[in-house]
Amino acid sequence: MKRFAQFFFIISVLFFTTLPLYSCEPVIENTEPDSETIHVGDKLPFFTIKISQGDTLSTNDLIGKPTVLVFFHTMCGDCQRELPVIESLCQKYGKEVRFICISREQTDEEVAAYWEKHQLSIPYSAQTDRSVFSLFASSTIPRIYITDTTNTITAIFIEKADVQELEEAIKRHSTKE
Predict the structure, then answer these.
(1) Is residue 2 part of a domain?
(2) CA max distance for the chain
């Protein structure tokens, strides 16, 4: 019985100390009431990323075409639910609206393996840190930002996006009915 208690204690400690690593939230919560750095009506902050097709994109390259930016982590349960929705919307509106997924603290190998396993085709940028994410917010993923052709943010969806509202926000920038 003593061995079982020791085993149970060790497993419990391991479980509760590693659980935050797989959460959609950071281990240290932001104590500010507003974790948003940018809001609807703001311009996108300047950033440069390398996307999965090998191209380098900056905020300036996004001008001229509406864009859907998605911040995610492949171990985040909410992100896992949202990414197939984003994939289907990308398939439907991708000729008129640019879609880019930006990981938070993941290697290219990790994201590429997830993309392959789940048959995703959305362009992505694997970020091993939070430098790009921190330009937008301090916590909580998935985050979806929709911009117009001038890089003005027209909609923000945090954590759990309503599919109909998300599609309506994208439709506003599309000629597709």
Answers:
(1) no
(2) 68
Q: Which of 112, 95, 136 is nearest to 50 (CA)?
A: 112
Q: Do β-strands 124-125 and 48-50 pair in parallel, antiparallel, or remain unpaired?
A: unpaired
Residue 139 CB coordination number (10 Å)? 18
Per the CB < 8 A criterion, the answer to whether 161 and 145 are in contact is: no
Burial class (CB in 10 A: 0-12, 13-18, 19+), 68: buried
**CATH number assigned to the domain comprising residue 120:** 3.40.30.10
Q: Is the peptide bond before 45 cis (omega within 30 degrees of 0)?
A: no
> Residue 28 falls within a domain, yes or no?
no
Model confidence pLDDT, tens digit, residues 15-44: 444 444 444 543 323 333 356 789 999 999
Number of domains forming the structure of the chain? 1
